[in-house]
Design goal:
By secondary structure, this protein is mainly α. The protein has four helices and no strands.
């Protein structure tokens, strides 16, 4: 038994009386790009200050390596978010085609791993400060 999916249809079934508009779909792209870029700048500055402080004080340890790993995964997550900003903020899911979101279903599902590394870093830091 073969099953086919219409990739040119809407990504979500629209409500009754609403017609999907793939041409003039709306969305605010500037807000999406601005949020991602500011988040990357602020997090990179924060990580750089922390690593510089630990390097100067010669207390570079396991927590800093976990911080670097968490920051790298955060940047990977931001790359997925940046790619989704092309759709814009405040755009209904039924106003873009299913083929446009297929990338996220197959390649964009790995970022939830990043909180695990951050949690390891925070837990390790808490443990070392409590001993």
């Amino acid at each position: 038994m073969s099953s086919t999916v219409n990739l040119t249809g809407p990504a979500l079934t629209p409500p009754d009386g609403v017609i999907p508009d793939f041409e003039n779909h709306g969305g605010n792209h500037v807000v999406g790009y601005t949020v991602v870029i500011l988040g990357i700048i602020i997090s990179t500055f924060s990580v750089a200050l922390h690593l510089a402080n630990k390097t100067i004080s010669k207390k570079f340890g396991l927590g800093e390596f976990l911080l670097i790993a968490a920051w790298g995964q955060y940047l990977g997550f931001q790359a997925v978010i940046y790619r989704s900003a092309v759709f814009g903020i405040s755009r209904h899911q039924w106003n873009f085609q299913l083929k446009d979101v297929s990338w996220y279903f197959y390649r964009g599902l790995w970022p939830p791993i990043s909180p695990l590394t951050f949690t390891d870093s925070v837990t390790e830091r808490w443990y070392l400060q409590s001993v």
